[in-house]
Amino acid sequence: MPYSMIRHLRRTVLLTHQIRLESTMTNLTHDDYLIRPPITQWSKIIREAEKIVGYPTSFMNLRWLLSDEFANMAMHLRKVVDSNHPLMKTAKSVIYNEHNNLQPWGLVILLLSKAVNPPMSPLQANKVNESQRNLAELTEMIRTGHSVHRGLLNIPRGKYKDFDTELFANKIAILIGDYLLVTANGMLARLKNQDLSYLISTALRDISEGEFFGDRDSQNLPLPGKPLSMLDLYEINSDTLPFDVTNVLGSPTKEWTLRTLYGGGSLFGRGCEGAVLLAGKGKKEQERAYLLGCHLSLVWQAASDLQKFTTDNKESYSLVSAPVLFAVNESPDIYKEIEKFKNDLRELDYDAIKSCVLKTNAIEQTRMLFSTNSKIAARYADMFGNCESIRTIKRLTETLL
One GO BP annotation here (predicted)? Predict the structure, then answer.
């Protein structure tokens, strides 16, 4: 029965290819976007990585997709398939998690686990233990659950033609998001590791605080901070205290870094740190793993932001992506134009803003941001040795641009 429901869900989501996307283009937030590196090379590296860890990435989603609870919720997606609700986009990305559009959090956690685990015997290679596999899965589940919740629409009565459908889609999104988060927390509790539970709880705190960082419009879409002409770097610390938000808004590099960490970078970092913790390594190695995860998330986000502005496709982009923040800092008139529509960003001319961004030095600055974080991530990766798993992690960043 569950398997038949998943097949039905696939057919349901497939229909969304025929749905108009205009009304949901601006509902995507900063870290919703998926990276599209060169398909052939990226897919090859992903498959090689899966062979190394002996665990296909698709299995992470498959386990909870085949549950009876999720199958029941999937049935209700039929009622919203004709809508433009962001829930359908999220469902599609979960079910069709192709190798060419994946930020491979779980896979990297497994690769790092294999690199740091002691060998079972002198003649046996390092293996990923069951606790680390569960950690990789629950990290992906928390990330997906948060994405589903973040896609909720503010739908005042009278302003939407399909008010009842959109309202129903919101309810399903809440149920699915809650199910994923509760299931992930149940998996975390069953690992019976208090230190790991604390690490993941700090990441959940960061995700929650990120929803209240900076100004937002009526649909909860983030607005860039007022430019302060500051280009300072944001220093990432491995302690578990809340992020320092002092003098961050308006400083493009600091604001972009903190938004990326709030949007999931912290969770990925704690997932990497937890994998090293479960391997029995010391505090120093755990801190390095956290910083490795954070900088990898920054690398992927910078690559994603760049692709929205350097490809011919008319892809949607966030107003708090790196190119926009750099452009706003260089040309305050762009900020003034955005501010005119701060109550509802759907009325903003995104094509005009994109043209203004491309006239500035923002793309080159974003490339430098990518390069800087890529080098830092590689440096932290090298601290875990020169094994096949670590070399594969580094290759996952080298193929992005």
Answer: ubiquinone biosynthetic process
